[in-house]
Amino acid sequence: MIRQEELRISTSGRGTYDISNKVQQAVASSGIVTGLCHIFIRHTSASLILCENADPAVMVDLETFMQHHVPDGDPMFTHTAEGPDDMPAHVRSILTQSDLNVPVTAGRCALGTWQGIYLWEHRVAPHHRKVTLTITGE
Amino acid sequence: MIRQEELRISTSGRGTYDISNKVQQAVASSGIVTGLCHIFIRHTSASLILCENADPAVMVDLETFMQHHVPDGDPMFTHTAEGPDDMPAHVRSILTQSDLNVPVTAGRCALGTWQGIYLWEHRVAPHHRKVTLTITGE
Amino acid sequence: MIRQEELRISTSGRGTYDISNKVQQAVASSGIVTGLCHIFIRHTSASLILCENADPAVMVDLETFMQHHVPDGDPMFTHTAEGPDDMPAHVRSILTQSDLNVPVTAGRCALGTWQGIYLWEHRVAPHHRKVTLTITGE
Predict the structure, then answer these.
(1) Are residues B90 and A138, on separate chains, in Cβ contact within 8 Å?
(2) Could you identify which of A37, A128, B105, C66 might form a hypothetical disulfide with B110, taking C-beta atoms 3.0 to 4.6 angstroms apart as the criterion?
């Protein structure tokens, strides 16, 4: 059985957005009990991560880390058509994930206790992001 | 056909652990000949990688690289509840993989000659880690 | 339905190679309309990325970024049997992807407007690379 649907996520700019509930709702609606839920972002300046979902300081520190290692406006970058955060957004996407697969067990994404599914907006300005879910199984 | 099972991996602390044989055994037991083997770690401070399996120096160098770029106790991090290796473990996980998919061909994971499947423990202390395998195919 | 095939990609050395068309052709030939296309590289010194496909400067900047953070001949590395680009190639592979999954919708990889699928050769010398495609769905 295969179910495919698109999530639309509006971001308010750079930062992480917990999409775990939206994904879990799609899995529940699919009727699939055992299988996999594939999550795909159709952009190259926003990405996906699985990360600790309890302490908001983790997300602050992730931003700090990326801003330190992939700083906006770094003069090493020449692809700057859309501004100082343009190329850093591509690099941040490359260093994280464009797609994730999560096991479906007993009709739910079988995440670990502390795992959440996040969309990471790397552009400073708000964006509308499309995420394709493909849920397969029995 | 879908087969799902959980591996339990006990680590003795930071370092890489070759789980290729355990995964190959699960694929062999599944009876699936052509398809995919999905490997998922249910934690945010340990991760998965595919890496060169011949020279142990590669694993030493990977540790050196991470300790250089994501040092324990870096004062840029505020999420330190579990110690100086807490936030670095999350960053290392983000920069590597929480899930891998490997093709199954002729009843085996069709890895390249030099590819091994590794669990990378990022915490200094020993941990018990859960890895979910989902093997699909014909 | 499952279709598996191998692509052979000859590289002329370090750099990115757009394999989107080859992957789309395989998906079209498979007859699968809705599902997933899994792309797997059977090597540990070349990797896969999804990246912006419009401005060639993006690929130049990605190389610059990697050469800055994972420089060839870095004295921190001890695995140098195949030369100064040996261990950096493994690190670059670890920091990017060995496998990607892309949704198949209406008989095509449903990439975003600006997304291309690239093989990233991390070794300086030309290599022959094997990529396994596993296309599943209905």
Answers:
(1) no
(2) B105
Nearest to B44 by CA among B76, B82, B18, B7: B82
Helix (H, G, I), strand (E, B) or coil at B97: strand
Residues B91 and A69: their CA atoms lie apart, in Å, by 12
| C103 at A interface, C-beta within 8 A | yes
* Phi and psi at residue A20, to the nearest 5°: -55, -45
Chains that touch A (3 or more CB pairs under 8 A): B, C
Please give the structure tokens belonging to residue C98: 């060995």
Which parts of chain C sit beneath pLDDT 70?
A: none
Rounded distance between C-alpha atoms, residue C85 and residue C71, angstroms: 8
CB contact under 8 A, C103 and A44: no
For A78-98, give the secondary structure using H, E and C.
CCCCCCCCHHHHHHHHHHCEC
> Residues A44, C54: contact at Cβ < 8 Å?
no
Kindly indicate the confidence band of residue A128, based on its pLDDT and cuts at 50, 70 and 90.
very high
A117 with A26: CB under 8 angstroms? no
**Closest CB to A101 among B45, B93, B99:** B99
ipTM over 0.90: yes
- 3-class SS at A25? helix
| Cα gap A66→B91, rounded to integer Å | 10
One-letter amino acid of A99: D
Would you say C107 and C138 are in contact if contact means Cβ atoms under 8 Å apart? Answer: no
C58 touches chain A (CB under 8 A): yes
DSSP string, B20-83: HHHHHHHHHHHT--SEEEEEEE--SSEEEEEEE-S-THHHHHHHHHHHHHS-TT-TT----TT-
Give the pLDDT confidence of A46-66 residue by residue, as tens digits: 999 999 999 999 999 999 999
Nearest to C6 by CA among C136, C130, C137, C135: C130
